[in-house]
Write a structure and sequence with these properties.
Layout (H helix, E strand, L loop, with lengths): L12 H4 L6 H7 L6 H14 L10 E3 L5 H4 L3 E3 H9 L4
Antiparallel strand pairs: 1-2
Length: 90
């Protein structure tokens, strides 16, 4: 008995639409318009490259000089990250 293959899931068009980063966000990820998924990926690359995850609680991200204006505080949780970054996309 053969099972039918599931159709591939279509990506949500809203997530794939390139958005322009603010000057504050562009300082971290560059000025090119990117989809939200790529923005999040680039922010995490930056966080990992600069070892900004709190060693005591890896769910928290410590802001450096580039991230502090983006976050508005010295530390955020990974769950706040998307919401804060969304405010810098248009």
């Amino acid at each position: 008995m053969a099972t039918a293959a599931k159709p591939a899931r279509k990506p949500n068009a809203a997530f794939m639409k390139p958005l322009k980063p603010s000057a504050t966000l562009a300082a971290v990820i560059g000025a090119d318009p990117l989809p939200r998924t790529e923005v999040t990926k680039k922010i995490w690359e930056y966080i990992k490259a600069h070892d900004l995850q709190d060693p005591a609680n890896r769910r928290n991200i410590n802001a450096d000089d580039k991230l502090r204006p983006l976050f508005g505080k010295d530390q955020v949780s990974m769950f706040e990250l998307t919401k804060l970054v969304s405010q810098h996309l248009s």
